[in-house]
């Protein structure tokens, strides 16, 4: 745990990446596996993880992120895209996966299916989108922590035009919305932000034990 805390202290929102340094396929695979293992309400994972390597696509996206250099300089750009709405298929597909993975007859999962559907299907499309976005942010948090453990630099990014990203990446037709980004790679020696002391609330101000 001491190493984990050290790595979280090492992590910061990298403003300038070294574009000559690329994440190895092995480390990228570990990072994505860790992200896929993130907690998710009911285990449903109502989002997609897009890993952008293509320089041309990222160049097209950069103006939609107000010209921020991380979009093109980082080794990879990861887009977390939440489902904008859903129906029974979200639950049905998940329970089919549960049945196949655990060797359980899907009929035996009906009570669980009914519970999830009773809680989720009455939501409005706006409420569904808000809920799926929250699930994507849980995955983002795990991605950032896992990257720090691998000594991979990251920059979580909300400063972009989702509508433009959706159009460029063809997400609208897939019932997806780019909700948050994570630029991943390795910090440039020229990034002065890495030398700033980390500023957080004191545990006394942040944490209340009842």
TrEMBL record:
<dbReference type="InterPro" id="IPR033878">
    <property type="entry name" value="NfsB-like"/>
</dbReference>
<dbReference type="Pfam" id="PF00881">
    <property type="entry name" value="Nitroreductase"/>
</dbReference>
<comment type="similarity">
    <text>Belongs to the nitroreductase family.</text>
</comment>
<feature type="domain" description="Nitroreductase">
    <location>
        <begin position="9"/>
        <end position="186"/>
    </location>
</feature>
<protein>
    <submittedName>
        <fullName>NAD(P)H-dependent oxidoreductase</fullName>
    </submittedName>
</protein>
<keyword id="KW-0288">FMN</keyword>
<dbReference type="InterPro" id="IPR000415">
    <property type="entry name" value="Nitroreductase-like"/>
</dbReference>
<dbReference type="GO" id="GO:0016491">
    <property type="term" value="F:oxidoreductase activity"/>
</dbReference>
<keyword id="KW-0285">Flavoprotein</keyword>
<keyword id="KW-0560">Oxidoreductase</keyword>
<keyword id="KW-0521">NADP</keyword>
<dbReference type="InterPro" id="IPR029479">
    <property type="entry name" value="Nitroreductase"/>
</dbReference>
